[in-house]
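Predict both folds.
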Amino acid sequence: MSQSEYQIPTSKNSSVDEVIIRDQLNTIYVDQVNNNEVSNQSELAGSVAERLYAIADDLNLARESHLNSSRAEHAATKTKIIKYIGKFLFNNELSSSYNEIITERELKIEEGEIGASIFGAMAPNERRAFFNDNRESWFFYQEKTDASKIKHSITLHYEVKPEGILRVSNQAGMQCEMISGKELSDFIKATEIYYSRVKSAIYKNKDQSGHNLAA
């Protein structure tokens, strides 16, 4: 992989995503970062961190709600099966309707696939994932197989801190550093698009009470 691949790629966002980023989500700091218009970097870092903490907190609530719903559906299905068994005595076909419980890991894998799509189509020899893991952590993973069938991969861990975003890599010799400029704005855009697409595709912008969540 080239040195340029040691940072998060530019997101291939659509015009709809741009509207979400610029208007609905009010991420004005993206332009400020790109144009070096920020005089108080500490204030900017705090604004970015607060937004990312809010995104992660809402995603965590959405996952919990989704998992609770899965458990409830699983329990309801199990109850129905027990009733059927009591009536029909071990009908083997009944087990086919016994839904498995979704896990948090499976949800994050699904989110990671949606995150991967932010950066455009993947090559046949490429695997990619981008996802939020917890309040302080985002991960970007990319793997490519060369002509000799050798796999080359990189994992970037973005740690959200009040003073900025720290990029940590598994690449030997790659320095851990606070990101800035275009890399920071690309990361911000990617997290916002991820949030919008994941909520729409998996969690349907609903909280536990069924009310719409403002992005």
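Second protein follows, with its predicted structure tokens after the sequence.
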Amino acid sequence: MEKKKVNTDFGTSSLTFLGKYIADIQKAVGDKLNVGLEKATNYLADELEKKTPVNTGITKQSWVKQLKYRNVKYINNTATNKKGYPIINVLEFAKKRGKPFVRKTLQENEEKIRSIIVAELEKEGTDNG
């Protein structure tokens, strides 16, 4: 049986086309991921605000979302006590006056957050509207 020689010498135009095609796919997936992360961030920030203890002063209204970076999102709480310590840290980690809820809220919503992101990635086409 004679082995057939396979032509593996791709021309420059073939490689350029393939490179552009892969780059287009990466951009489309990145765009969808970014939308999914934004939606998940908005969802989690709302959940954190709902779960913030009421008697914590301005802490409940001090959740801030950073959405400006591509595929990287942040949620922060800007409320501090009179000594400048983040109130969220006091609530989450203080032994006497602590009312931990951040980690618990994240864990309770982990599957929902994942499903929000995956749903965006599974959408057909590149329309993320």
